[in-house]
Structure formats: C-alpha cells, structure tokens
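Structure, all two chains, one model.
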Amino acid sequence: MTSSHGLSTEALVDRYGRLLYAYAFRMTASSADAEDIVQNVFLRAMQNQESIAQASNIQAYLFAMVRNETSKWMMRNKRMKTVEDIESVTDNDVSETSGIDQDWLQIGLMKLPDAFRRILLMFYFEDASYKEIADAMDVPIGTVMSRLSRAKQALKDHLTQSESSSFRNGIQS
Amino acid sequence: MSDSRNDKIRWEFADEADRLLRDQLRSVECPTSMLERWKESLRNSDNSHASGSLGPSEIAFDKVLTSTMVRGLSQRWWSIASAATLICLVVGWSVFQWRKPSDQMFYTQSQIVLNGQLNPTTVELAKLPWFESVGSQLSLSRVINTETLASAEGDFSGAIVKISSASDSVYVMAYPLSRSLGFSRSLRPVPGTSGGWVMAAMESDGVLVVIATKGSLKNWINVNAFT
C-alpha cells in the first residue's frame, strides 16, 4: 500500500499542529486542554497510520479527530467554564496582533451553544461546505445554514457590543 | 482534493469582517515548545511500542504499511496483549487489595515511593490509599501502555508537588476531588534525563495521580508534596 502523502506523524505535527491547536483552543478556551486534545490526536494518528494513509484529505481527517476528542472532552467537563475562567486563560494564549479583542472573541465563542460553535469553527477553520458540515454533524443542510448564520451574526454582534449585550438571548431566539 | 470539495461553497468573504473573523479565530499562538512536546510524546509512545509491529513515527507511512499479513498479525497480537494486560490488572488489583498495607509509607513492590512532607496536621500521607483503580477518575487515553499508577488523595490545597524520576515517561495529573472546583491539569512527560523533575502547584483539594508508563517501573519515582 502506498501512502497518499508519505508524511511521518512528526511531520504532521509540524504541518497541522498549530491549526489543530487553535481549533481545540477555540472549542475549549483552555490552553492545557487544547494541548492535551491535540496530543491525543497525534498519538491516535500514530496508532492509526493505515487510516491516515488512506485518507484523501488528511487535514479533514485530523480535524475530525480533533472534533471527536473535543466532544469527549466536553462530555468529561460538563461544567461550563465561567467567563472568569476564560478570561484567566486567554490572556497568554492568543496572539496580540489582531484588531479584535481576543479575550472578548473567545468569550463570545464560549457563549455560543456547542452545536453552533462547532459549526462555526468547522466553517472558519476547515473551510467546510454546508454539506460537509451537515454530514459531519448529522443534521440537515438547512439547519447548518440557519445555525451558521445565527452564530456568525451573534458573534459579530458580540464583538461590536458591550459585555451587557443580550448575546445568548439573541442566538436562542 | 475530491471533486465534491470543488463544488462546495468556499470562502467568498461576503465582507471584510468575515475575513477578519476567520483570521482572528485562527490566530491562536501555538509555541514551538508545544510542538516539540507533542513530538517528544510521540517518540516516547513509539519507544513504548518498540516490541510491537508498528514502526517508528519517523518512518513514512508508505514504508510502514507494506504487508497486510504483518498488519493482521499485529492486530491479533495487540488483541491478545490487551486481554492479557486487562487480566493482569484485575489480578494485580485483587492481590494488592488483599496485601494492602494499612500504614506504610513505602510500597516497594512497585518501586514507586510516595514520600510525603505535606503539613502533617492536614494530611497523613501514610494513610492515603496508594493505589486507586483507574475507575472513573481518570482518562488514560493519552497514556499508552500504562502499566500502573499510584495516587494519593487528600487535601493538597496550595501544596507544591515535586515529582522526580529516572524515567523518561512519567505523566502527572492532578485532579480535583470535586470536579466543580476546577479543571484537571496534566503535565508533560518528564524529559528523558535521570533526575528530571516537574513541579506542579495544586489548585485545590485533589487527587494526585502519578502514572508510570511502560518502562518506568524499572526506575523510581519520588513524589514530594510540601507547603
């Protein structure tokens, strides 16, 4: 069997590590947890080299693994992080080069319902189509479009409004 | 890239804000040291699999996956090994429960030493249960070929825990007793030098769990907790 990419697992770390970490961090708002999640993914990738080798799109495959690991993490961490928790970890974990307040951005993300946040991140990180998201989430395309639209709008509203905005009310209405 | 992906709706950036949001979402800093830790973890894991059929990660996959027969044998081997490990764990746990010392500082059979210097008025480490079953307290998914673990449960509030080991593959996790108090925390494997150590500040009451991966049992692990 010939690998479609011929990359070693360590090469995968170099190529995809940062992006996967960013994705996991956006989902968890925890640097330590994101690091653990991505480490798990790479360990599993090493154990499942055959599947990786057969994957037509290795980035999508790895993202799927991160999503899976993140879901497990969410199951284990039923307690939702508080805004204070998020603020305490975001200070050192995000780039300061942006024009957007990264803490505020992360808080907005964490306020999104999990399903919305997952769709949003699939869209922004994986450049996934509606159909791909719908297949991955096992929901109709219309639901994906609706949730994505509302999530984007809610996040944009959050970024342009004060902390006292009725963010969650807006997304759930 | 598949044809379906060509048909999909790609980024068309309805406005500049969309583009900005996408860029900002991705702009999480991932230090190079983190990438190195992942690689180190992969190498450690690789070493622990040295007797297995999987090749080192440095080998490209197309070279690893050359024989269906080898893979089939490997899967069978791992199934047998997994079953044997499970049986050993169950038997070992039963034996340990039977022989468990009630008031001993050292449990030498496993060559794991838990030497407490925590405020004696708060915790009597000698009476703590050394070995906990994996149970529901831990997710061991990140640790491959775990052979044993030791834990100490008690009031580690504010304590500094120092772990030193001659092993290159020691994972340390500090779990709060009440999960509502904080998050789990894990430290990276101790770098592979004799006497390497890590230090962790316990954030709350917690269970200190030292997980020794395969190979480390031949060496020693020393845990000191002090305020």
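Residues 2 and 53 of chain A are 8 Å apart (CA to CA).
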